[in-house]
Design a protein that fits this description.
With 430 residues, the protein is an all-alpha fold. The protein contains 23 helices and no strands. Helix 7 packs antiparallel against helix 8, helix 15 packs antiparallel against helix 16 and helix 15 runs parallel beside helix 17. The chain is globular and about 70 Å long. The N and C termini lie far apart (63 Å). 45% of the residues are buried.
Length: 430
């Protein structure tokens, strides 16, 4: 399809270079002779939201930006230029200054993020990541990017959340620098970095930051054209949406991504693993939304899909799913549906040695602990959480929902075996 000359005009290209996607949407509206109300109606929001979208330089809802840009006809290459972070070496005069209102909102936004994660990680590290998301720093180029990304994934798998937070700003900077090549592999790698950032922020309960990074992961995955990267990014965004109680949107996003995988024929183990993983996430999302029949049907389909997978996922696989991992998801599905007995039954034969990473071993402990707690068994709850803590302290200490169970145990069952030890391990020294 030929590109409208508007988008190759000096005005449009300058706005893209200045990182002003809202202004591009505005000139697109003017080109179509649309009012704010017309565009708002077409993309499903209010005229006031469109007005803010056009005026602001800080992106609050990347998905909405994509919808609006697509509606007015902004070509993808122009939009992506406008969404890229400014080069870290650019003189200050070439950078676009945010509005005074945005500047005034910055401290509140940071306080909200830090308040939500105060017990989860060092405030300076969270703020450092926040700064890197607002303005990409100069790339440190501290070694091959593939190796550093693998190392960052290893930190996540270990539950070393603070060390991962410290590494992410530099990794984001290097990945952006690499993506300048416009090669699909480099763009997919940048998507993976943002997806990893989203995953750790979800662990810490920082859902606003996780939404931002998941949106960016999805953007770069789509630009890369990689079906697996697109599926991985869609899953990360769906997880965030679920935590924000947008279950319907999460399910629609996952359904679309899963349909795309299924259409590929699932001819490789990598795509088969991706398909099984997506079904697991869809099952848990349906369970959290209270859709019992759908959740159980999806969980069963995930088990069937996992039968062709190896018992242990090969190192480096994007979707490290296995039959045991699917069974662990089933524990979570039953727990989310309010059936603690079925959750305990689903997990009774699972063992830590079936899971290759500390994060998954600990997740077995925390998921079983949630079921034991719902079953009103404090001693078994404490024992499962201690097992999880021994595998990965961060999985117990850094996750707000799990810390909440620890605190309830300490308040309601202080004399139960293991509770004092667990609470002392998780509570920061004063």
């Amino acid at each position: 399809m030929p590109v409208d000359p508007l988008w190759n005009s000096t005005t449009a290209l300058q706005l893209a270079a200045q990182r002003r996607p809202g202004a591009l949407i505005r000139i697109g509206c003017q080109h179509h002779a649309w009012t704010l109300a017309v565009l708002a109606d077409r993309i499903g929001c209010s005229p006031a939201t469109v007005s803010r979208l056009e005026r602001r330089t800080r992106i609050a809802d990347l998905a909405l930006v994509h919808r609006a840009a697509r509606e007015v006809g902004v070509p993808r290459y122009v939009l992506m230029t406008s969404l890229a972070a400014p080069p870290a070496t650019a003189p200050a005069a070439t950078r676009v200054t945010a509005s005074q209102r945005d500047a005034e909102e910055d401290p509140m936004r940071r306080r909200t993020l830090l308040a939500a994660t105060a017990a989860a990680g060092p405030a300076a590290l969270l703020m450092g990541l926040d700064d890197a998301l607002a303005d990409t720093p100069a790339p440190p180029r501290a070694g091959p990017l593939d190796g550093r990304l693998a190392g960052a994934h290893a930190l996540y798998d270990q539950g070393a959340h603070a060390r991962l937070l410290a590494a992410l700003p530099g990794l984001i900077a290097d990945a952006h620098h690499s993506a300048v090549s416009r090669r699909s592999l480099d763009q997919a790698r940048l998507s993976a970095v943002y997806g990893l950032a989203s995953a750790v922020l979800v662990k810490l309960g920082s859902y606003d930051g996780a939404r931002l990074t998941a949106d960016r992961a999805r953007t770069w995955a789509e630009v890369s054209g990689s079906p697996l990267a697109t599926a991985a990014a869609a899953r990360e965004l769906a997880v965030v949406l679920r935590h924000q109680d947008q279950h319907g949107a999460a399910q629609r996003l996952m359904s679309s991504a899963t349909d795309g995988l299924e259409a590929s024929g699932l001819r490789t183990d990598a795509t088969a693993a991706a398909y099984a993983q997506m079904l697991c996430t869809m099952a848990y999302t349906a369970a959290r939304a209270g859709r019992r029949n759908q959740a159980l049907a999806l969980a069963e389909e995930a088990r069937r899909a996992a039968r062709r997978l190896p018992q242990t996922a090969p190192p480096g696989r994007l979707f490290a799913i296995s039959p045991a991992a699917v069974d662990l998801y089933t524990v979570g599905v039953h727990w989310a549906l309010g059936d603690a007995g079925a959750a305990l039954e689903a997990g009774k034969n699972l063992r830590p040695e079936q899971f290759p990473t500390a994060e998954r071993k600990a997740r077995l402990g925390t998921d079983m602990a949630r079921a034991w707690w719902a079953w009103q068994r404090p001693e078994q709850t404490a024992r499962a959480l201690l097992d999880a803590y021994r595998s990965s302290p961060g999985e117990v200490r850094d996750r707000p929902a799990i810390r909440h169970i620890v605190n309830l145990l300490a308040e309601q069952h202080p004399r139960t075996t293991g509770v004092r030890q667990l609470h002392a391990a998780v509570t920061p020294a004063s």
